[in-house]
TrEMBL record:
Descriptive protein name: Luciferase-like domain-containing protein
InterPro entries on file: F420-G6PD/mer, Luciferase-like_dom, Luciferase-like_sf
Sequence ranges assigned to domain Luciferase-like in this UniProt record: 10-293
Gene3D superfamilies hit by this protein: Luciferase-like domain (3.20.20.30)
UniProt source species: Actinocorallia longicatena
Source organism phylogeny: Bacteria, Bacillati, Actinomycetota, Actinomycetes, Streptosporangiales
Length: 325
């Protein structure tokens, strides 16, 4: 199983330094997110300072950019990294895409299908000078008279983030990989996700993302991870996920507190069940529990509700764990 890491930093320089340290420790893939920063710009900064590890976006927002811009950025990143890019794409949620980015969200599964097809077309053929034409139900491309230099690769891996069954099925059908959000469990992966991915008869890479909190005091580790659990629990979209793990009531309570402007109360057992949190031995065992079902694991430090120094300590402990693993 591949061991990957999502580096954190208050500054871009600090984030890149963490990526370099994680690569030296043995991280196979360095994953960068898109919320406070641009995923593609951050990926470029990490690619320029690293040598071996894959560079993955986990995730770039597929609907906030045109498919052409995404494809061109992917080609540039693949060139900059020497063929190390994994293009991870996500739909985001309606409020994020419509209110923050001013883009339509209707028909996300069909929109994602068109997006991936256009990206693959551009990556494969933009250097040939041939017309680039795609007529999709949600997104289209009509380009003539365009040519760019030959790329490092004419096929860049495209991974899709998915939570619901329809987007998960699409990932199994067309993507090179599937990426989870930062909460999960081996049982959820085996019972809910893996069957949906396998339905198309393909074997995409399965990337489990895990909020990882390590402390000699397991209770302290879980308190640090609780903010990330609360962040996801504030989103109605994840109701089925929490119900599967027996936390339907807690999910509703956290959501109500969030909407009332109150701090969420996340029980320790909720953080223990949905994150990799505890002392180093517990967390290492949690990582190993995914072997045989996941292809890769992406470890990320907790950030929600924490002072930067606490996230720094968490980051250092994860990088130490990667070296040990």
């Amino acid at each position: 199983m591949r061991i990957g890491y999502a580096p954190w930093g208050e500054t871009l320089g600090e984030l890149v330094d963490a990526a370099v340290r994680a690569e030296r420790a043995g991280a196979d893939t360095l994953w960068v997110s898109e919320l406070h920063r641009s995923a593609t710009v951050t990926a470029a900064a990490v690619a320029a300072r690293t040598e071996r590890a894959r560079i993955g976006t986990a995730v770039a927002l597929a609907f906030a950019r045109s498919p052409l811009v995404t494809a061109l950025e992917a080609l540039d990143l693949d060139e900059l990294s020497g063929g190390r890019l994994v293009l991870g794409l996500g739909s985001g949620v309606r409020r994020l895409i419509e209110d923050w980015h001013g883009q339509p969200f209707e028909g996300p599964v069909g929109r994602m299908r068109d997006t991936v097809e256009i990206i693959r077309l551009v990556v494969a053929s933009a250097h040939t000078g041939e017309p680039l034409l795609h007529e999709g139900a949600r997104r289209s491309l009509r380009m003539r008279g365009y040519r760019r230099p030959e790329p490092v690769r004419t096929r860049i891996p495209v991974h899709l983030a998915a939570v619901g069954p329809a987007m998960t099925a699409l990932a199994g059908e067309i993507a090179d990989g599937w990426i989870s959000h930062e909460l999960g469990s081996p049982r959820y992966l085996a019972e809910r996700i893996a069957p949906g991915l396998a339905a198309a008869g393909r074997t995409p890479e399965i990337v489990v993302s895990a909020c990882c909190s390590i402390d000699p005091d397991p209770a302290a580790a879980r308190r640090a991870a609780a903010g990330t659990v609360g962040f996801y629990a504030s989103v109605r979209t994840y109701a089925d996920f929490f119900a599967f793990h027996g936390f339907a009531g807690e999910h509703a309570a956290v959501g109500a507190a969030f909407r009332a402007g109150l701090p969420p109360d996340v029980p320790e057992e909720m953080a223990a069940a949905l994150t990799l949190s505890g002392d180093p031995e517990e967390v290492a065992e949690g990582v190993r529990a995914y072997a045989g079902t996941a292809s890769s694991i992406k470890l990320a430090p907790p950030v929600h509700g924490l002072e930067p120094e606490r996230t720094r300590r968490a980051q250092d402990r994860i990088i130490d764990l990667i070296g040990a693993l």
